[in-house]
Amino acid sequence: MKFKKDRTYDAIYLSDVHYLLNKKIKNHSHQELFALLYHLRRRGIKFRKIYLVGDIIENWFFDAQKKIRKSKKQKKRLDKLFDRFDKISAPGGKKYYVVGNHDTTSFTMQLSPLLDDYMRKRKWRVAESFRDKYTVVLHGHQGQYNKINWALNIFILRLLHALAVFIPRLFYVSEAFYNRHLNRQDPATPADKLAYYQRLSSIARQGKRILISGHTHDFLCLPDVRIINTGDWVESRTFVVRDKRKWIGVRMQAYNEYRKEFELRLD
Q: Up-side HSE of residue 63: CA atoms within 13 Å toward CB?
């Protein structure tokens, strides 16, 4: 697929970048994302709306606010990403930041004060979900099904982290608890996926709208129930573009970091 030069599209949707995370902790495709954003800017491609559909800034493996506050280098890394999103935003365009479960450890799913202030100063609208006449956009994590259980699990995780300062082996217990209760309840089989999205549709009050989510890192479209998952920038390297009533799923198929060449495949 080739985007037409100097073209303005209605919207772009992408999720699960897990930015500020380094590869010593977990693999990611940040370099490929920067190559994509550079490619779009160089071709003069703009979007009237940009939706970041959750888990954009990694805040579970460490305290992102503390990391940015202590290091000018990390602040510059954050600027590097959002400067590039700004450059593909059309004049007068709107930018939406959906809060995902890796963006925050807040019981109420709020960004930390520093990150929230950072996003709003850059004219991003920040919320747990966004809806208009045609779409509803949310991350789709477990905390959106049952907020009481979510808050309780976060409280237990924080307690384990605090105790692990004195009893280091509790870090292993903490990681196992996190994976079981906050990160690994995602659907695996086709039946699980259908049940998951049916539940998410009900919670989101989707109605006749198109529901767009992230979280599972599973790039897919379920046309019968009008549901799209944007995939991720950890492994899939995928995103979705809306061009009027046409929805385009795109995967970065291959990338040569030396020649700065890559292939975009229409899915």
A: 11
Q: Is 61 left (phi over 0), alpha (psi -120 to 50) or beta?
A: alpha
Domains in the chain and their CATH numbers?
8-141+210-266 (3.60.21)
Q: What is the pLDDT of residues 179-237, one digit of tens each?
A: 676 655 567 777 888 888 888 899 899 999 999 999 989 999 999 899 999 999 998 89
DSSP string, 98-143: E--TTT---TT-PPPHHHHHHHHHTTEEEESEEE-SSEEEE---GG
Return phi, psi of residue 97, to 5°.
Answer: -115, 110
* 104 Cβ contact list (under 8 Å, min separation 6): 59, 110, 111, 112
82-104 core/surface letters (b: 16 or more CB in 10 A; e: else):
bebbbebbeeebbbbbbbbbbbb
64 and 115 Cβ atoms separated by less than 8 Å: yes
> Model pTM?
0.86
Alpha-helical runs (H) found in the chain: 30-42, 64-70, 72-87, 113-121, 147-164, 170-178, 190-203
Q: Which residues fall within 8 angstroms of residue 157, CB to CB, at 6 or more apart?
A: 105, 174, 177, 178, 181, 182
Burial of 4 (0-12, 13-18, 19+ CB in 10 A): exposed
* CA distance linking residue 77 with residue 26, whole number of Å: 17
Q: Is the dihedral of CA 104, 145, 13, 31 positive or negative?
A: positive
